[in-house]
Amino acid sequence: MMINECGHPLCKNCVENIYARNSGNCHICNRLLKKNGFREQIFEDPLIDKETHLRRKLRKIYNLKNDDFETLREFHDYQERFETIVYNLVFETDVVQTNAEIQAFEDNYKDKIERNKRRLDEDQKWVEDNLREERAMKQRVNEGQEQDQKEKESITARTDTKAIMDELRDSNVAAEEILNRERKKQVEKEMEEKEEQEKRKRRNKEIFQTRKRQAENMSFTSAMRIAGRPYIHQNLELVINGPVVPTAIQINKMGYLAHMRPPSAGRVAGGYTATVGCSRALLESRLDLLVF
Amino acid sequence: MYSTSTQKKEWTFTAEQIDDQRQEVNQKFREKYKDFVEEGEHEIFLTCQEELSMQRIVEEAALKFADKFRPSIWPSVKWTAYAYFKRLFLKWSACDNSPKLVIMACFYLAMKIDEFFVTIDEFVGNLTTGNPSQNAERILALEPEIMRELDYNLTVHCPYRPFEGHLMEMKTRMLLLNFDLESIRNDSQRFFQLALQTDALLMYPPSQIALAAVKFGLKSQGKSNDVLRDFLNKLLGVEEDAWGGGVVPDANTHVEKLLVKLEMIENTVEGGTNKLSDDAVSNLQNRAGDLSNFLLILDKRRNDKWQAEGGIGRPPGEKDEQPVDSDDE
C-alpha cells in the first residue's frame, strides 16, 4: 500500500491510475496531493505510519539539544511543544496555525538548526559508540579467524609443493604438463578467494544498511505485534478418584434438592442456589473416596 | 479440593509413620538434656506413650470447652483446631510446650481460618483458668509460632460436608428404605466426636471418614450392613442406573476394598479412644509435675556448667529468636 501526507492508504495500481498526471485529489478527503508525495506504507495502522513520517520530517527542524537551552525546564517545555505540534498535525487540528509556528521556529533558530544537523546528542553518541565497539570486536574476531586460515593454508601449500616435487620425480608424465595443471589450479583458487571476499563485503554492507534503516524507522509509539501460537483453552482435568459427580441438570432432575434446605431469599439474591451447595457436598463426598 | 491439598500431600500419614514421628520427637527432647542427666534419672522423662496420653487428656477436656463455647462454634472449627493440634505434636514434644495452651491457640487460629469471628477478649472470656490478659498474651504469642510450624498449611478439609453429601446421595438413591436416614445423624456426630480424639484425621481422606461415620450411624441404629453395601453398589456403579453412568469395571473390587477401608477407620476410631482411668490420669499428672521440677534442676545444672566454663557465648537453652510476623503486634 502507498500513503501520502493525508494518511489515507491507496494501492500502488490505483496511485498509478489516479495520479497519472502527477497530481490529483485524495479519494477520501479530497485533498490535493502530488504523486511523488506517495511513499510505501510501513506500519499497518495508517495513523502510526503518518505519525512516524511526520516525526521524521519534523526532527530535521526540531533538532535542538539539551545544551541549547539554559535550563532543563525550557528544554522540557520545548519537547512538550514538539509533541503538541506532532499531535496537531497527525489529527489535523489548527494545521495552518501549527505550520506557521513551525515556520517561525525555523526562522528563529536557523543557526542552531543548521549547526545541530551535524551534531549528535548523548543518546545517539552512545548508540554510535556501541555500534563502533561491536564492529571492532567483530573485526578482531574475523582477524583471528583469518590468521588461523592463513596458517592452515601455508601448511597445505607446503605439503602441496612437496606433493608436486614427488610427482615430478616419480611419475612419467611430462614435467610441463604437471606444472601447467598446478598453475591452473592456483589461478582458480585465487579467483575463488577474490569472489568470496567481495561477497563478504557486500553482505556486510547490506547488514549495515538494514540496520540503519531499522534505526530510522524505529518508533516507540507503534503497537508491538507478538507472533506465536494462538491460545487454545483446555479445561483443567479434575481428578476425583471416586464416582462421577452428577451434573447440575442431574441434580435438579434426580431429586437431590428435596433433601436440601431451601436457601434464604438473601442468599438467592447473592447468587447462591441449592444446586450449588448440593453439588459441592456431592463433590466433596466423592473426592479421593477410592484411595486405598 | 482435598486431592490437590497440602493436607493430602504433607499431612497424611500411615499409622507407622505417625508412631515413628512421635518416637523421634520424644528422643529429640531427651537428647537436649543428655549431658546433664545422671544415672537412674532417665526414668523421670515421659515415655512416648505418656506424652500421647497427655495429649489425649487435653483433647478430651478441649471437647468440653468447645461444646461450652459461646457463641457456639460450628463443628468444622473444632475439626480444624484438632487437626492443627495433632500436626503440631508430630513436631513438638508435649514436655516442651504445654498442650493445654497449644490447643487453645489452635482453636483461636482455627476460628480465624474458618471465618468464625471472635475477638481475643471474647475468646479468653470462655477460658476458666488463668487471668484473661495473660491468657490472651500467651495465645497471641503462640499463634504465629503455630503457623510457622504448620508451614502455613492452614486449610483443613473436614468430613462434615462430605457427610452431608453421602447422606443426600443415600436419600436420593435409596428410596425403598423403611426408616428415616436422619435417625443416624446423632450417632454419626458422636463418631466424629470420637474421631477427634484419635489419629484418624491424620490418616484418611475426609470423604472416607464421612462414609465411616455413616456406617457407624447405621450400625448404632441396629441396621444391617447390607444397607451400606447396597448403597455402595449403587454409588460406585456395579449396575447401570438412572443417572446414565454405565457399569464401571472393577466396581465390585472397589466396593470390597472400600468396605475394608471403612472397617479400618472404624477400628482406628474405636480403638484409639480407650479412656484412661482416674488413677492413671492423676498418676500421669504427678509424673508431669515431677518432670517439670526435674527440668528446672537440669536447667540449673546446665547453667552451672556454662558458668564453670567461663560463661562464653550465649546462655544455654536460649532459643534462637527468629521474629515471626504477627498482625497482632
UniProtKB/TrEMBL annotation, chain A:
Keywords: Metal-binding, Nucleus, Zinc, Zinc-finger. It comes from the Eukaryota. It is found in: Nucleus. It holds the Pfam family MAT1. Residues 240-290 form the MAT1 C-terminal CAK anchor domain. Residues 33-219 form the MAT1 centre domain. GO terms for biological process: nucleotide-excision repair; regulation of transcription by RNA polymerase II. Residues 138-157, 183-208 are annotated as: Disordered. Its main location: nucleus. Signal peptide: none annotated. The keyword Zinc-finger applies. GO terms for molecular function: cyclin-dependent protein serine/threonine kinase activator activity; zinc ion binding. One of its GO terms (cellular component) is transcription factor TFIIH holo complex. This is RING-type domain-containing protein. The lineage of its organism: Eukaryota, Metazoa, Ecdysozoa, Nematoda, Chromadorea.
TrEMBL record, chain B:
Residues 77-155 form the Cyclin N-terminal domain. GO terms for biological process: regulation of transcription by RNA polymerase II. The keyword Iron-sulfur does not apply. Residues 159-241 form the Cyclin C-terminal domain. GO terms for cellular component: nucleus. CDD domains: CYCLIN_CCNH_rpt1 (cd20524), CYCLIN_CCNH_rpt2 (cd20525). The keyword Manganese does not apply. Gene3D superfamilies: Cyclin-like (1.10.472.10). Keywords: Cell cycle, Cyclin. Pfam families: Cyclin_C_2, Cyclin_N. One of its GO terms (molecular function) is cyclin-dependent protein serine/threonine kinase regulator activity. SUPFAM superfamilies: Cyclin-like. InterPro entries: Cyclin-like_sf (IPR036915), Cyclin/Ssn8 (IPR043198), Cyclin_C_2 (IPR031658), Cyclin_N (IPR006671). Residues 306-329 are annotated as: Disordered. Belongs to the cyclin family. Cyclin C subfamily. This is Cyclin-H.
